[in-house]
Specification:
Layout: E1 3-9, E2 14-20, H1 29-36, E3 55-62, E4 67-74, E5 87-89, H2 103-110, H3 120-133, H4 139-144, H5 157-164, H6 178-189, E6 192-193, H7 215-219, H8 222-225, E7 228-231, E8 236-239, H9 243-252, E9 257-258, H10 265-271, E10 278-280, E11 291-293, E12 297-301, H11 306-319, H12 326-336, H13 341-344, H14 349-354, H15 363-369, E13 372-377, E14 381-386, E15 392-394, E16 397-398, E17 405-412, E18 418-425, E19 436-445, E20 448-457, H16 467-472, H17 482-493, H18 505-529, E21 554-560, H19 581-585, E22 602-608, E23 614-620, H20 622-625, E24 630-634, E25 644-645, E26 653-654, E27 660-661, E28 667-673, H21 676-683, E29 687-692, H22 699-705, E30 714-717, H23 720-726, E31 729-737, E32 749-754, E33 761-765, H24 770-781, E34 788-792, H25 807-820, E35 824-827, H26 830-836, E36 843-851, E37 857-869, H27 875-884, E38 894-903, H28 917-935, H29 939-946, H30 965-976, H31 978-991, E39 995-1008, E40 1017-1024, E41 1030-1034, H32 1043-1055, E42 1062-1063, E43 1067-1068, H33 1083-1108, H34 1114-1123, E44 1129-1135, E45 1140-1142, E46 1147-1149, ...
Helix pairs in contact: 2-5, 11-12, 17-18, 18-37, 24-25, 27-28, 28-29, 32-33
């Protein structure tokens, strides 16, 4: 069967037909685009529809509605076979650098909305699709368009600001809008800038220039009427076009899976290794796409998508009275939080039902409302099936017969005295699976309950209805006496044993009654509004009832403009856009897996341990080796050189585990095959026999077993013991800081290309550390390092995760290429990356703190423990930085801090933005909060009285010079209007019981340099060509932070030429050797000084030419220099002077200088669910004289949001036996677009000068991250208010991340008291805190 769809030709912006004669049912659209059509702009970020990097636009003609429909989809899930007769638009098809960008692309690039760029094509296509459907959307509609997209770099604000210019609310005058003129006049007078982009330069949106939908797909219905069959290697795909044909197929293949959007089955097949030999796509059967309004409700065909349902229900709400559409309202509200548009656009309602997920968002609503299915089979005909407590029979099982298919579902109308609500709580509001969800319905007559239906997801292996509770309340009055009885009944009706799958038992049980309480209040308020209730809801309870609302985002960015006399060609200090942004928004930026395939290239897939600690008894690769396309299986036996390596210590860990595995995810071997699919399938068939050993997983496990690495560093100043005796107060406490997955959008990728002579090899890799990979590969191969050239163009994010752990993948890949003499490629799947490469270190601390009556801290004694994992890696350096930063920004005269590095059986934890600093600072902030509780005063006051001042000495003896902490503090308090808003928060809290607010101000002081002295060096290589163009190479890796852009700005100023004359190609070990990793926020400092040094050398050589030819152009000077045989190429070098700390003597300055900042955040929490919203954040940051304000502000916002994830959301879940549950975006949630502060203001401190770095700038990559703790501690203040209302006035523990579970359970009240936590040791928990 020939398969036809259309795709835009990138260079012509028009569609061309694609005919695929042998469509493989298991091939996704993404695979086809990238591998067959070589359209690599669309990226693979997760493979499960959770990140949006693969977003494309699908267009099809709806013959029933007589319109062209455009919708975004996840191409990583969309089966190729499902696109027959449709048009596909990718990011390449709407614009390019050469032929002109589309306005969506241009505005995103110029608004600084692309950093690493890997997520950018998907974001572009989500916006483009929105504009194809609505050329001028509202701001709210625009912001919702990205619910299915993630970005790890930007902090989202610049993306939204760039796209805001397309909305109805945007003033076309931009910064010259009359609303801005008053402020603009003041700012222009004092040299302060507030606009990072000139919106007047943007290209206008012209819908007439969009590609025309292929007429042949519109005029002919043959593409919809054809019955299709595609037979693949393992799967046969059927697309029937009549109901009888579907029933015949289902009768013949009763085990066949019906597929509409492939949003569930695609994930099952890829990640759960499920096999479905027959798949049937019922997408083109008329009866299954019908929508019919009846007297009982609205009937939706089984294949109607969730987006289409939302559209229809919205129209129904406008058409029918409110009392008839209460079920519809609840469904639409639930759909707000159901995945993203890309999923809702293709997922069908029947799939949600038949999948029978116990955490389905919609099934609780269907059960509670009494939705009715029509099902049919060839054998038994058609019947109606009510969705009630008997519909779900067991895990993933329904009351339907195997041969039956769903024809339609009836959403019922409600009556005037019938009330219906739905509820859901998850880690993240947007695009997240529920922790618990519910549907609730009651019919009330004369204030008496006539009917009562509750349904819950997340409380059992199925969606459940608490039937005993439901029957017990019939006939009861709907008044306050009902609440405690229903709560008691629900507690009995919905039991969960400690250690139940999913964990969070007490929280989940509490949510069941919290949801009911919200339902009770909501119904009571409706009755009250109609004067049908004698019971009045108190005003301070009413905030519990509204559905979630978020105002449109707003922001400000304030920075110091360049001096009036600065030369126009001097780029330093100007908000220049990221120099790769234009390529990134058009999909033309090349990442490792975008490199065209080499001749005879092979693919590698790793084989990893499934056990946390075990001896390897046997490895059987025979089945894998017999599979089609498989070439080889390699292991430790194939390593020609050394099989061990270490980031710091030489034999820290093995490349291939030989006799014993020390964690889940440890590399044991690798399969080599002709294609990626062949290699990955075969890798899963390698059988490893283990002898299991008892694992050590958590810090407390390690403490109990005394499992530590040998290095134990400590810092001490003053006399701690004497200070405690002299303190007015002494308290003790503890602090737990969780780990964090890097979740860079581009997973680790490597391409090794062996040369035909001298054992040479080129290695293309997504790594922050080319030299480390070069050295380990050379040692593993047994060849000199000069034979290995490692090349890095750009990374799709790094954050420290690609500093050392890429070696785990690069070295086996090089060994395979060396053995076979052919290029070998690998790009990890998201789950492989997450289970293999390690995370941020979890920390635990026990502390004792002494202080005066005024809150002045006099002594601190703290023992700090970090979970290193199975090897040391960089853990000793991470601990060192935590020790250096456990003072944060506060002067403490007497300190004793000791570090313990725990050896456990989890993947080795590694560098992550902040590198132990945030964990150390978090310990200090917890201490301060405890002090404030003890003194019954504001934590902000305690912080203020302890702030460092100019000339103070840190606990490790470094004197603070040009200390700007107090300035940042004062400006942040002023700009945030903290004092007034704190009073407003107190008033709000006094008036509301179930919603609480908190506001908090937190400073940061981050030391800049590598704590390992030898790493504080950098090199550069500068070539000037005869035409005057400059090629700049340095040792720093571009991973989204704008390093190449800044280095070109530095070179531009140093050479006195425009940036247009300077180019950076890539980083290679053959151009700049012995590079340090791009990390520790030192990239601009080290490489900038090296670049400046090289440029100054060249200028010194050119000085005679300039002197003799004062009016000559740059090109003329270079030409004369060449003719005079003056060298136009040189290296530069820099080493940071006057630093270095010795732990043995306690002497020396570890840091070159400090970057400081202060943040004020205000939050609102829902005390009944633990949900929260960041209402506003104000940041004042000292960046010296910014090299590029746009890049620096982008780094501040991105770091803040990444830190927000660490503090509030991103929880690793691992079993007591070491199995990682959080292996992808489905289970591990990073912040999304909707999580940014509603108001987000960033100010760069004016008038700050830093003589210790290039052109008086300061490092910015890591320092802002900890400012996100202002959200954490604001939430803690809000919780304290809730606890006070419940009579709990003492201090309390709140570990990070402060997930909804932890927030809710900390708000102790009459509901949480019903579910006391089981005693530790009496059960096996589902997951543990690392």
């Amino acid at each position: 069967m020939q398969y036809i769809f259309a795709v835009i030709v990138p260079t012509l912006r028009q569609f061309r037909a694609i005919v695929e004669k042998n469509a493989e049912p298991e091939t996704t659209l993404l695979q086809y685009l990238r591998q067959k059509l070589c359209l690599t702009g669309t990226k693979l970020g997760c493979g499960e529809g959770g990140c949006g990097a693969c977003t494309v636009m699908i267009s099809k003609y709806d013959h029933n509605r007589k319109k062209i429909c455009h919708f975004s989809v996840n191409s990583c899930l969309a089966p190729l076979c499902s696109l027959h007769g449709m048009a596909v638009t990718t990011v390449e098809g709407i614009g390019s650098v050469k032929n002109g960008l589309h306005p969506v692309q241009e505005r995103l690039a110029k608004s600084h909305g692309s950093q690493c760029g890997f997520c950018t094509p998907g974001i572009v296509m989500s916006m483009y699709t929105l504009l194809r459907n609505d050329p001028q959307p509202t701001i709210q509609h625009m912001e919702k368009a990205f619910e299915g997209n993630l970005c790890r770099c930007t902090g989202y604000r610049p993306i939204l600001d760039g796209f805001r210019t397309f909305t109805k609310e945007f003033c076309q005058l931009g910064e010259n809008c009359c609303k801005n003129m008053k402020n603009k006049k003041t700012q222009s007078e004092d040299g302060v800038g507030t606009s990072l982009v000139n919106t007047r330069e943007f290209l206008p949106l012209d819908p007439t220039q969009d590609p025309i939908f292929p007429p042949e797909l519109q005029t002919s219905s043959k593409f919809d009427s054809q019955s299709l069959v595609y037979k693949g290697e393992r799967v046969t795909w059927y697309r029937p076009t009549s109901l009888n044909e579907l029933l015949d197929l289902k009768s013949s293949y009763p085990d066949a899976r019906l597929v509409v959007g492939n949003t569930e089955i695609g994930v099952e097949m890829k990640f759960k290794n499920m096999k479905y030999p027959v798949m049937i796509a019922p997408t083109h059967i008329p009866q299954l796409n019908d929508i019919t309004h009846t007297d009982l409700g609205i009937r939706f065909g089984a294949s109607v998508t969730l987006s289409r349902i939302d559209e229809e229900l919205k129209l129904a709400q406008e058409k029918y009275p409110e009392n008839k559409t209460r079920v519809f309202t609840a469904i639409r509200e639930m759909l707000r939080w159901f995945a993203g548009y890309q999923i809702r656009n293709v997922a069908a309602v029947a799939g949600n039902i038949i999948t029978a997920s116990p955490i389905s968002d919609l099934n609780p609503l269907f059960l509670a409302s009494g939705a009715v299915l029509e099902v049919e089979s060839k054998e038994d005909g058609r019947r109606q099936l009510k969705m009630d407590d008997k519909f779900f029979l067991g895990y993933r099982k329904t009351a339907m017969k195997q041969s039956e298919v769903v024809i339609n579902i009836l959403f019922p109308f409600t009556k005037e005295n019938e009330y219906f609500y739905g509820y859901k709580q998850a880690y993240r509001r947007e695009d997240d699976i529920a922790t618990v969800n519910a549907g609730m319905r009651v019919v009330i007559d004369d204030n008496c309950i006539k009917q009562f239906s509750l349904a819950y997801g997340g409380m059992a292996i199925t969606t459940v209805m608490p039937v005993k509770t439901m029957s017990a309340v019939i006939g009861r009055k709907w008044d306050d006496s009902l609440v405690p009885d229903v709560c008691r009944l629900l507690a009995e009706d919905l039991p969960l044993q400690p250690g139940a799958p999913g964990g969070m038992v007490e929280y989940r049980r509490t949510l069941t009654i919290s949801f009911f309480f919200k339902f009770y209040l909501s119904v009571q308020m409706q009755l009250q509004s109609m004067q049908n209730s004698k019971t009045k809801v108190p005003s301070y309870f009413q905030s519990a009832t509204p559905t979630f609302h978020r105002d449109p985002s707003k922001s400000s960015q304030v920075y110091q403009e360049v001096a009036p006399g600065q030369l126009a060609e001097d780029p330093v200090g100007r908000p220049i856009a990221h120099l790769s942004a234009m390529k990134q928004v058009s999909g033309e930026a090349v990442y490792i897996d975008d490199i065209p395939k080499f001749k005879d290239e092979l693919y590698m897939a790793i084989v990893t341990s499934s056990k946390a600690h075990a001896n390897i008894k046997d490895v059987d690769a025979s089945e894998a080796l017999s599979m089609p396309g498989v070439i080889d299986y390699i292991s430790h036996n194939d390593v020609p050189g050394h099989n061990t390596w270490g980031a710091i210590f030489p034999e820290d860990e093995e490349i291939f585990a030989s006799n014993q595995v020390l964690c889940q995810g440890q590399v044991v071997g690798a399969v080599i095959a002709h294609t990626q699919i062949q290699a990955q399938r075969a890798a899963k068939c390698v059988k490893i026999t283990y002898e299991e050993l008892e694992p050590i997983i958590t810090i407390k496990d390690a403490m109990k077993a005394e499992s530590y690495f040998d290095i134990k560093h400590a810092i001490e100043c003053g006399d701690v013991d004497v200070a405690f005796k002299q303190s007015d107060h002494v308290i003790e406490g503890e602090c737990h800081v969780g780990g964090q997955e890097h979740f860079y959008l581009e997973t680790v990728a490597v391409l090794c290309v062996p040369k035909s002579e001298d054992d040479e090899m080129e290695v293309f890799i997504s790594s922050q550390n080319p030299t480390e990979n070069q050295l380990v590969i050379s040692e593993a191969l047994g060849v000199p390092a000069n034979r290995i050239t490692v090349r890095v163009k750009r990374l799709g994010g790094g954050f420290g995760g690609k500093e050392t752990r890429t070696v785990l993948i690069a070295t086996p890949c090089a060994i395979a290429a060396y053995k076979h003499g052919k290029p070998v490629r690998i790009m990890l799947d998201r789950n492989e990356d997450m289970v293999t490469t390690g995370t941020r270190h979890p920390f635990y601390a026990k502390y004792k703190v002494g202080f005066t009556d005024t809150g002045k801290i006099t002594a601190l004694d703290v023992d700090i423990y970090c979970n290193a994992g199975m090897s040391m890696d960089l853990s000793c350096a991470v601990m060192d930085r935590a020790l250096f930063h456990c003072d944060n920004a506060y002067k403490i005269p007497n300190v004793r801090c000791k570090g313990y590095i725990c050896k456990t059986n989890i993947p080795s934890n590694t560098a992550f933005r902040g590198f132990g600093g945030p964990q150390g600072m978090m310990i200090m902030e917890q201490c301060l909060t405890d002090v404030a509780f003890a003194l019954e005063t504001s934590p902000v006051k305690i912080r203020e009285v302890n702030l460092y001042q100019e000339g103070d000495r840190t606990h490790y003896g470094q004197i603070l010079k040009v200390c700007q902490i107090q300035r940042c503090w004062d400006e942040c308090l002023q700009q945030s209007d903290y004092n007034r808003r704190k009073k407003d928060v107190d008033i709000f809290n006094s008036e509301n019981r179930w919603k609480k607010r908190g506001i908090c101000v937190v400073p940061t002081k981050f030391g800049i340099s590598y704590t390992a002295l030898h790493l504080n060096q950098a090199g550069a290589l500068v070539h000037i060509y005869k035409d005057g163009s400059v090629l700049l190479t340095h040792g720093g890796i571009e991973m989204g932070q704008g390093l190449h852009t800044k280095m070109i700005q530095v070179a531009g100023r140093a050479l006195g030429i425009p940036t247009s004359k300077i180019h950076t190609s890539e980083v290679g070990t053959n151009t700049v050797p012995n590079t340090s990793a791009t990390a520790a926020s030192c990239g601009s400092d080290l490489n900038g000084m090296a670049v400046k040094n090289a440029c100054e050398k060249l200028l010194e050589r050119l000085e005679p030419i300039f002197r003799d030819n004062p009016k000559a152009t740059w090109e003329e000077v270079i030409s004369k220099a060449y003719m005079n045989r003056i060298g136009l190429s040189t290296t530069g070098f820099y080493m940071t002077p006057d630093i270095g700390y010795d732990f043995n003597t306690g002497k020396g300055d570890p840091f070159n200088y400090f970057t400081n900042g202060v943040a004020c955040s205000e939050v609102e929490i829902d005390c009944l669910t633990g949900d929260h919203q960041v209402l506003r954040t104000d940041i004042v940051m000292d960046v010296g004289i910014s090299l590029n304000p746009a890049i620096d502000i982008g780094q501040i916002e991105g770091a803040f949001m990444q830190g927000y994830g660490m503090m509030m959301m991103e929880q690793q879940k691992i079993s007591p036996k070491g199995f990682l549950f959080t292996q992808g975006p489905g289970n591990y949630k990073i912040p999304g677009f909707g999580d940014i502060p509603v108001e987000f203001n960033v100010t760069l401190l004016k008038g700050s000068v830093n003589e210790r770095a290039v052109y008086s700038s300061k490092a910015i990559g890591e320092p802002p991250l900890f400012l996100s703790s202002s959200v954490f501690f604001a939430v803690k203040e809000a919780i304290a208010s809730a606890r006070s209302d419940a009579g709990h006035d003492g201090n309390f523990s709140l570990p990070s991340p402060a997930t909804p579970e932890r927030v809710r359970m900390a708000c102790e009240d009459q509901f949480t008291e019903l579910f006391p936590k089981a005693k530790e040791g009496t059960y096996t928990p589902w997951f543990v805190d690392l």
